[in-house]
Design goal:
Structural class: alpha/beta
EC number: 4.1.3.4
Pathway: Metabolic intermediate metabolism; (S)-3-hydroxy-3-methylglutaryl-CoA degradation; acetoacetate from (S)-3-hydroxy-3-methylglutaryl-CoA: step 1/1
CATH topology: TIM Barrel
Enzyme class: lyase
CATH class: Alpha Beta
GO molecular function: hydroxymethylglutaryl-CoA lyase activity; metal ion binding
Helix content: 40-55%
Number of helices: 12
Number of strands: 8
Radius of gyration: 17 Å
Largest sheet: 8 strands, parallel, barrel
Shape: globular
Family: Belongs to the HMG-CoA lyase family.
Strand content: 5-15%
Amino acid sequence: MTMPKVVSIVEVGPRDGLQNEKSIVSVEEKINFINLLSKTGIKRIEAGSFVSPKWVPQMADSGDIFSGIEKSPSITYSALTPNIKGLDAAIESGVEEVAVFGAASESFSMKNINCSIEESLKKFEPVIAKANTHNIKVRGYVSCVMGCPYEGEISPSAVADVSKRLIDMGCYEISLGDTIGTGTPVATKRLLDSVLNVVNIKQLAVHFHDTYGQALVNLYSALEYGVATIDSAVAGLGGCPYARGASGNVATEDVLYMLNGMGINTGIDMEKLLVATQFISEVVNKVPSSKVANALLAR
């Protein structure tokens, strides 16, 4: 187990970050935000979600987003597609990569997508199969990997089982999500010890929320295992509507500062990232939760 020399940052702010904002962010503002992110050196941006506007009104305009952004051929712009209807809309919009969103907790699965884990996996099968026939890569999210707001601690073996099922269905990558941010470095290592028995390290990403201030130390633990893909959100945007008190994603600025200090390359320009941070923070009228952003923007 050695630290990676290069880490891929998946910027989830435009989707996972903005979807929980109560005030609707306009199409123009979202497009401007993504265009600013595209200039930072980030190579993977989760730009939208093709879900029912009834459940996630903030994402109702994802089709307009994908047609309006200035796409760079070197960047992958992805979208969440929980069902065939969403996938069809994504295909029509020219999306290159999609994601399905499962859980390692039965209770969370019922609250979040109104079905059991087994039922959710069966619903994902045709989505993944159809995406693969269109040469669209599919990413699999597994939420509540270290804790659930309803069940408490989650067994690493339960996470490993869902992760393997998604890989076997055709997902090329699994993003392990500490949705409510309760994980610790020891729990992170225990999780990876289990999941790595069934999923290759090159197929794993980590997606940590910072509710208890543990995200960076948990990421360090994952880096020690060789995990080289990290999900984060500019300004620490995000949260979880089904997890009371859950704060946003680990901030991209904080992750980048840590990786820079470790000599790990991401290809991301901090100054250009801060331009995107300042823009979206003003749009949502919030101070960034990123300590690095607040320190650097105050200069």
